[in-house]
Amino acid sequence: MRKSHPVRRVVLATAATVSGVVLLLSLKPSSDPASAQAGGTIPQQTAAAQESAQGGTGAAAGGAVTGDVVQTQYGPVQVRITVSGSKITKAEAVQAPKGGESDQKTALSVPKLNQDVVAKQSPQIDTVSGATYTSEGYKKSLQSAIDKANAAAPTQPSAQPSQTAGGNAGAAARTVTGAVSQTQYGPVQVRITVSGGKITKAEAVQTPKGGTSDQKTALSIPKLNQEALAAGSADIDSVSGATYTSEGYKKSLQSALDQAGG
Question: How far apart are CA 1 and CA 212, in angstroms?
Fold first, then answer.
């Protein structure tokens, strides 16, 4: 019988060992976390998961801040803003009333509200006629988003919230709402925006409604707003035919000025 050479046995054993190691390496799962992280896939998934957990409400989410959901008579409204360099560069409604007439009202109002936010850089935007509930819900959610943006960037002076309800997103402007003044025909409440020691905007957030009050309000309020801007004080003329509304306006205006420091 022919004997096997010792060297040959050593060579065969070594070859078998190498083959086994190669086989084990080839069976190693391709989804190993370390190799996936080296390939750049895990960080992307982690970032997405973090954004989902945060709900896109922090400054870390690329400047996008989502306000609270506001329930209205016709459905929920929720607003998301994008902030860059302390300015609102984009506004959008991620939730809005749907179904029936709500579709038309949403299509009519939301684009206008979005544009108004970017133009005024403030939650003090005009209510869209015919879509009052959607507009009011939009403004409340917008204020919530601005508050969150302010809280996420406390070191930026231009993002500091106003000390009053309905604060302005800019540092130079301050929005103040006066006390409600009760008149014979209903409540009157005035809100002003003050910048550089001057009234830059005046509006009535509450006015008498119903019957002839609607006509008197439509007649007097625009004039009173203009008078407040021109005079820079509550020393303005009453509108003929709307004396009670005018007097209530001036009292609430004076209250707002007092809060703003005169």
Answer: 126
pLDDT digits (tens, 9 = 90+) for 143-187: 998 888 887 765 444 434 443 334 444 446 889 899 999 999 999
Amino acid, single-letter form, for residue 121: Q
Give the residue among 49, 77, 73 at the shortest CA–CA distance from 61. Answer: 49
- First and final C-alpha spacing in the chain: 119
The one-character DSSP state at 157 is: G
Q: How many helices (H) and strands (E) does the chain have?
A: 7, 8
- Judge contact between 47 and 59, C-beta under 8 A: no
Dist CA 135 CA 113 (whole Å): 7
- Cα 90-108-166 angle, rounded to 5 deg: 50
Q: Transcribe 45-93 into DSSP letters.
A: HHHHHHHHHHTT-STTTTTEEE---EEETTEEEEEEEEEETTEEEEEEE
What does the block give as tokens for 52?
């989902």
Q: Which amino acid, residue 146?
A: I
Yes or no: say if 187 and 162 are a contact pair by the CB < 8 Å rule. no
* Whole-prediction pTM: 0.40
Q: Which two tokens stand for residue 130?
A: 């015919």
pLDDT in tens, 90-144: 999 999 999 999 999 999 999 999 999 999 988 889 999 999 999 999 999 999 9
List C-alpha distances in Å: 213 to 181, 183, 186, 188.
Answer: 16, 11, 9, 12
Phi, psi of 161 (to 5 degrees): -70, 155
How far is CA 187 from its chain centroid? 29
